[in-house]
Design goal:
71% of the residues lie in helices and 3% in strands. With 173 residues, it is mainly alpha-helical.
Length: 173
Amino acid sequence: MAELSYTSRREIDQYGFHPAVTLLAPLGCILLQAVLPRIVPRLGILDLPLIATIFFAVARRSPIAGAVTGSLIGLVQDGLTNHPFGVNGITKALIGYGAASLGFAVDVDNMLNRAMLLFSFSLVQSLLLYIITRWLLGDIVRLHFGHQLLAALANTVVGVPLFFLLDRFKTRD
């Protein structure tokens, strides 16, 4: 006979991380994002801090924690790039909030779902960056849809194995 439980999916599937992992994994992604395109310019298409934001947001399944994590990662990334300060902070905060909220409804341990999350949130971030730079900052930028699709695909190809690597550091809250 099946048992009824009053434990929500959030309480069952919410994960935590050792503080060193919480600090060093996003910081490593940010530093690699700043250094790798200088060594191999084609790697500039990747957005490793975005991948870290999505991973920690869906693992914790807390929209507030996802937004805070995303904004901190984005602000540090802004400090190391030539973007106006706060642009990546805003977009990654929105992505973190959305990814954590979606983590309640979707099985994020499934590889196909992870790939779809990475691909779609990469496209959403590109759209948000365009909106912010074009409409809020007034910069004349063009949205190259083919390039954004390629970037989303590259983030997905790199992000799915990175998710499996970071899964090893999960702990139950």
